[in-house]
Amino acid sequence: MRQVAVAAAYVLAYSAAHHLSFSHWAVFAGVRLSALLFVPYRYWPALAVGEGAALVGNAVDCASVYGWLWGSTYMVPPMLFAMPVARWCRERRRLFPTPSTTNTNVLLLTIFLVALIGTTVNMATYSMMRGVEVDHFQVKMLVVAGWYFVGNYMGMLALVPVVLLVREALAASDGTGLWARFPESRLAMDTACLLLPSLALLVWLASSVPGEAGEEARVAMFLPVAWLSLRHGWRGAAVGGTVASIAVVLSMPAVEDSDTLHAQVFVAFTTTTMLMLGGRIAALHEREDRRLMDARMAFAVAQRNISLGELQLRQTSHALEQMGGLIQASYTQLLGRLRCLMPGTDERSYCRQAAITQHQMYRLADSLYPLAWQERGLRAALREGAMPRALDEAGIAYWCNIRGAELDALSNGLRIALYRLSCEAVSLACSKRNVSRINLQLRCGSFGGRRWAVLCVDAQVDYAQLGKVRWDDLFPALGGSGLGLGAIKDRAIIFEGRARARALGGGQRVSVILYDPDIS
Predict the structure, then answer these.
(1) Does 406 score more than 50 pLDDT?
(2) Is-contact 512 492, C-beta < 8 A?
(3) How close are the terminal C-alpha atoms of the chain, in Å?
(4) What angle do CA 9, 14, 18 make, to 5 degrees?
């Protein structure tokens, strides 16, 4: 039953295409090659039987005019002679390297060989025809052979690449959601908004303007094909070639019009060239897409590594806090046992030393992972965390301005990066020890569905206040690595941003822009 169903479906498709075809536009040749390229081998006998059945009616009707010898040869399916070429290209030449890709050069070779075979079969059948009208046309055998070759080639070139394009789209989407993604396709939008209107205008010009202007309008139909190919590779050439072929036929004033044949030959040459060039363009686009995908994966890995490092810092911070509490408890217990053996002055000195040690460990833990960050988020960390307290204790004026309602919507990784970059920028500003005031500004927003953040750290100097700054123990408490501008740029690149430093009047500015890896 499957064989019968395949044969019946092919008869319907072949008959419908045969009614739309003529000598130099054989759409049924495209149906034939499409079936040979995509139908499994076990159904090829059914295809041959279906094509023979589709030819029987025409052979019987015209046998009385052209002779029964012609009728008997006409009923032989031309598909039988194209099957070896189709199988050779599918198996030996790797026409389909993967289920979702196509080798366009092999495809064009297949179309050319099958068109040549079809033309040979047509001319062999044509030589069997008898009659006065046939005797008149047999004088122009080469001209008729050219018609048949152009017709077979154009019919396959107009249909087979589009069928391949649909096949790739179905393989890429597994047949689900194809129509839902169709309006989002740039190729579909360019075809609907630019290709179809331009070709409709050229068809109108070619049909309404006689003479050389109409012929030039037909020839100009290759321009949209070239433009679409340069934008979308061989897929654009496939769609553009099909639409341009239909446009040339629609503008045809007569079936055997020589000007239309010349335009078809030119469009066929253009489509072939664009398919060859488009295959290379598509390969370059795929290579660029793979490069971008690899870059995104590298960014994602780096961001995950940063998150893992921050988690380790958080664990270390908690461990240091617990260690500080244990040290304080151990000091208290030891002093309680030795209180009777030491003077009160020494006891107060030991207590003060224990408090200082605990405070230093707390500051170290807070610089590793701020307590304010854990409790109240990034705003509190930048305004009240370890870095602002260290600057205040050192005598450096600090001012923080945060704007934008998108701050809390940023991903956790980006907020951590903003805090670390703030510490690095402040450490860089203080590294030359000529800073008395630091202004930090943070702006957040979104553009094109993607969130961004801009950080600016301005370092200013007031020589009257510079002598009062206490630089001792400032840099460890700031939480920066001290590696300079290079470390800031490296961390900004991980979030697809950039950083720069420039001098200001009486100071310098470090500015950083970052992009959130999360797409809203």
Answers:
(1) yes
(2) yes
(3) 52
(4) 155
* 3-class secondary structure, 415: helix
Give one DSSP letter per residue of 76-138, joined into a string.
Answer: S-THHHHHHHHHHHHHTS-S-SSTT---HHHHHHHHHHHHHHHHHHHHHHHTT--SHHHHHHG
The phi, psi pair for 457, rounded to 5°, reads -120, 115
What is the Cα–Cα distance from 452 to 267, expressed in whole angstroms? 48
Residues 435-444: tens digit of each pLDDT: 888 999 999 8
The pTM score is: 0.63
CB 495 within 8 A of CB 477: no
Residue 114: which residues within 8 A CB-CB, separation 6 or more? 29, 32, 33, 82, 85, 86, 152, 156
Q: Among 507, 490, 478, 410, which Cα is nearest to 499's?
A: 490
| CA gap 340, 1 in Å, rounded | 106
Alpha carbon distance 214, 208 (integer Å):
8
Report the alpha-carbon distance of residue 198 to residue 92 in Å, rounded. 40
CB atoms inside a 10 Å sphere around CB 307: 15
Q: What is the mean pLDDT of residues 342-353?
A: 69
Integer Cα distance of 23 and 15 in angstroms: 16
Overall size of the chain counted in residues: 520
| Amino acid at site 34 | S
Distance CA 85, CA 115 (A): 11
Checking phi first, is residue 479 left (phi over 0); if not, alpha (psi -120 to 50) or beta? left
**Cα–Cα distance measured from residue 257 to residue 272, given in angstroms and rounded to the nearest whole number:** 23
- For the chain, what percentages of helix, strand and coil (3-state, to nearest 5) are there? 70, 10, 20
Give the residue ranges of DSSP H helices in 131-185: 132-137, 141-173, 178-181
- For residues 185 and 173, give the distance between their C-alpha atoms in angstroms, rounded to a whole number: 13
